[in-house]
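Journal club prep, notes for RB
We'll compare a predicted complex against what the paper describes. Inputs for the cytidine-5'-triphosphate case:
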Amino acid sequence: MGLPLDGKEIILGVTGGIAAYKSCELVRGLRENGAKVSVVMTEAACRFVSPLTFAALSGRDVETDLFASRGPMPHIDMTARADAFVVAPATANIIGKAANGIADDLLSTMLMAAKCPILFAPAMNCRMFESPALQDNLKILRDRGVIFVGPEEGPMACNEFGLGRMSEPADILRAAISLFREKTLSGVRVLVSAGPTFEDLDPVRFVGNRSTGRMGFAVAKEALSRGAQVTLIYGPTALVPPSGVKAIAVRSTREMAKAALEAFGDADMAIMAAAVSDFAPAEYSASKIKKGGHENYSLKLVKTPDILSAFGKEKKKGQVVVGFAAETDDAGPNALKKLKEKNADIIAANIIGENTGFGCLTNRLYIYDKKGLVRDTGLVSKDEAAGRLLDMAAGLLQLKEIKSKGRTAK
Ligand code: CTP
């Protein structure tokens, strides 16, 4: 079997951010997977990493200057040959230039001339990432079909903590490979839920949980890269839905249940990664609840609808239903119990721990079907875990029927 990027010509644009050093590893990864890599660096990038490093790793000369280059028109020649264009790290500056058609150096000029798929791995300070200008620019590029990987949340070089770190080279590599992936799920409709749900108590407070939505977003991204039509229903999260999915933002379990049940009838597969709140306050107070007069305060909670169970009851022949089980203890027995009681086809159990479960970049899924444990992913990135889960779930789809005549009634 050939390598995933065999013979592909990839331009790697490197801009001026501290994460530029991580792109050295990306060059190696791209080449190890069969790609031929041409590196283009901005002037600022050369202050972080020497072009010599990238030249040694790529085995090719590195282009840095529109005018000092070897060929007469590198921005045209190189982009005409390229199968993909990856920019990592992508600073706020290059994102702004690309979004607004500014071409004032070699890299921005090449981005304007490129006709191939473009993948950006943003990296910047979290406050810069949140800025309205940057967010508008991201939207412009997404609407034009540019793919984004990351950024991630975490500690930053500037000693702040937030969303803005460049994704790890392995995740950028995976995203680059998925640009060329065979669209095995084309014509398949996948419904994904992600994130927490928040149950409001008064205008100030809510009952919620620690889910960041990362696992569900990774599943949505992976399904999309395999050509599926993806509907992503997500609770409150800092993450931005991938371009190309039908994204529905909700807050409470009730809202999530309504949107999910409406979408389920049309779905071939549902993957419920959301950490749904099992209980909601029995009453909502329109005014802020004051502490005066209370030494203790008891909250009455009532059960919320179980969306996965509703899918299990409603599912028609051919529909595949996948749930998660976030556990602190007895993951196996709990997963199997949920599989049976909720009539799911697959349950992916994960332990709530330091590197697995909520609020981290990695996960370890124990994947159960009716036969029992069928796969242990080991500790991998959430993107990787999403891929393994989709491999298994896709194996249960009746792809031929979906593609020819659609589902039949039970
Ligand atoms: N789920 C759901 N609706 C709910 C609660 C959970 O759809 N009201 C789904 C979750 O999205 C997940 C699966 O059910 O796919 C299991 O969720 P989990 O919180 O692990 O289990 P619960 O059924 O809530 O049971 P418990 O909290 O007792 O472990």
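Talking point for the session: The CA atoms of residues 20 and 311 lie 45 Å apart.
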